[in-house]
Design goal:
Distance between the termini: 74 Å
Radius of gyration: 24 Å
Number of strands: 22
Length: 495
């Protein structure tokens, strides 16, 4: 029975606590379609408690007294603990979001690198002495913003938490994490490691629940000075608008409709694998999904045949099994949305080359599985080519030449990522320069690193995560003037 499911608790001010409403909601296992635990349904009261705790930790107590090297040491402690517990955390993520264990454990074993990287940056936040034309000694300082709200999506909860939490803490901020209502369990387990790493109470807090009830109060809270959000364009636009009322800092990593462009001179075997990696890995539930496959006309039909033959061999089923290639969609609303877009594409006149509906294979059981789906005959003005589906659905669009590929690739509201497959280095560099995307991969796809900035153009967002640029998103610059003059000039005239 539902009431017998394990009940989780929020983490506020260094303690697992009961939440204000006393009500819970169920978290579902996407493979079985059944609930497996109960998550606290947070309210504005919980958000307020967390934001106030984070503000106290930022302004008083041990945290503001630590120097940058000491903050880095705490982040290194956390990195080691994540490494030790990566497999257990990955199992929780699979239970909550249905993605392959092989991918989740890979992410969690890689996640410590993000904490190590920003631990190393913590004591390298340097101001500068500024030459000035006045009789003064001037220099700059880079200081933390204060309380940051980190709103994390359901597709890669702990990896994307690391993207936000590591630079925020390295810069000296405090944080309230709001995980997706679909994937809260791993974050609440992870926060135990934050505590064990030695972070003072209130520095990191976790509030669970639904966006309007728990997330919005964080965005609106007067103590929150920065909101970092990963998710849909519509929600991101709302956060941007709301944050503007209090002039809060915002970084947004939003949707994508990324072109994955295959030229006739490409290594076609690699390009087929890259196309599959771009859309069917993670069941298409990734913001950088190469959901528009642009194929040069001269190889279009032959390439689609090879792609269909390769993709049709993908094994679906239990995401915990090592030989599973495609797992379920994470939640029921998303499952229904993906199937609705398949119907939309049919009605628009696109032709199904593979898949095209709910998976009914015995190994999929009662889970939320969608067959890997490939559409041909797609025009770039169709909804299936313009709107983010966030599922294993690929639109194949032919193009004539380089100019046509650029025109089609850029003719979309988003600009998160793009892929280019070619053996011509001049073409590769030219295409990378011309495509309107925050990341361009050449002869590879869906690679990220803690060293390299990540973020979007156009409606795919603003600000950057990862790399040295990320820590600047959590800092503000102060200029300091020290007079060197022996006497003051006319006080009624600006100096």
């Amino acid at each position: 029975m539902t009431k017998d499911l394990p009940k989780l608790q929020m983490y506020i001010d260094g303690t697992f606590v009961e939440h204000a409403s006393g009500t819970y909601f169920e978290s579902y296992d996407p493979f079985t379609g059944k609930p497996w635990c109960r998550v606290p349904r947070g309210t504005a009261d919980d958000a307020d408690r967390a934001a106030r705790a984070a503000h106290r930790a930022f302004t008083t107590g041990a945290w503001p007294g630590l120097n940058a090297s000491e903050r880095g040491a705490l982040l290194r402690n956390l990195a080691e603990l994540v490494a030790e517990n990566a497999d257990d955390l990955a199992r929780l993520e699979v239970r909550d979001n249905g993605k392959l264990f092989s991918e989740m454990v890979g992410q969690l074993r890689y996640a410590p690198s993000f904490y190590h990287y920003f631990a190393g940056l913590a004591d390298k936040i340097e101001g500068s002495v500024v030459p000035t034309d006045k009789a003064a000694f001037t220099y700059t300082r880079h200081e933390p913003l204060g309380v940051c709200a980190a709103i994390v999506p359901w597709n890669s909860p702990l990896l994307l938490t690391a993207w936000k939490l590591a630079p925020a803490l390295a810069a000296g901020n405090t944080v309230v994490v709001k995980p997706s209502e679909y994937t809260s369990a791993s974050t609440l387990k992870f926060i135990e490691l934050v505590e064990r790493a030695g972070f003072p109470k209130g520095v990191v807090n976790v509030v669970t629940g639904f966006g309007p009830e728990a997330g919005q109060p964080l965005i609106d809270h007067p103590h929150v000075r920065k909101v970092s959000f990963t998710g849909s364009e519509k929600t991101g636009a709302g956060i941007y608008s709301d944050a503007a009322r209090d002039i809060k800092r915002v970084s947004l990593e939003l949707g994508g409709k990324s072109p994955n462009i295959v030229f006739a001179d490409a290594n076609l075997d690699n390009a087929v694998k890259g196309a599959v990696a771009g859309i069917f890995a993670a069941s298409g539930q990734t913001c950088v999904a190469g959901s528009r496959l642009l194929v040069q006309e001269s190889i279009h039909d032959a390439f689609v045949d090879r792609l269909v033959a390769f993709a049709s061999r993908a094994k679906m089923g239990n995401p915990m099994n090592a030989d599973t290639n495609v797992g379920p969609v994470t939640n029921m609303p998303q499952f229904e949305k993906v199937l609705a877009y398949i119907d939309i594409a049919r009605n628009e006149g696109a032709k199904i080359a593979l898949g095209g509906g709910k998976a009914t294979r015995p190994e999929c059981g009662d889970g939320w599985f969608v067959e890997p789906t490939i559409f041909t005959g797609v025009r770039n003005d169709m909804r299936i080519a313009q709107e983010e589906v966030f599922g294993p659905v690929l639109s194949v669009i032919p193009f004539r030449d380089d100019d046509d590929a650029v025109a089609i690739g850029n003719d979309v509201a988003f600009g998160l990522a793009a892929g280019v497959w070619t053996e011509n280095m001049r073409r590769a560099i030219t295409m990378a320069n011309r495509l309107q995307a925050g990341t361009v991969w050449v002869n590879m796809y869906r690679a990220v690193s803690y060293t390299t900035p990540f973020g979007g153009y156009k409606k795919s967002g603003m600000g950057r995560e990862l790399g040295q640029e990320a820590i600047r998103e959590y800092l503000q610059t102060k200029s300091v003037w020290i007079s060197m003059a022996e006497s003051m000039d006319n006080p009624f005239v600006i100096g």
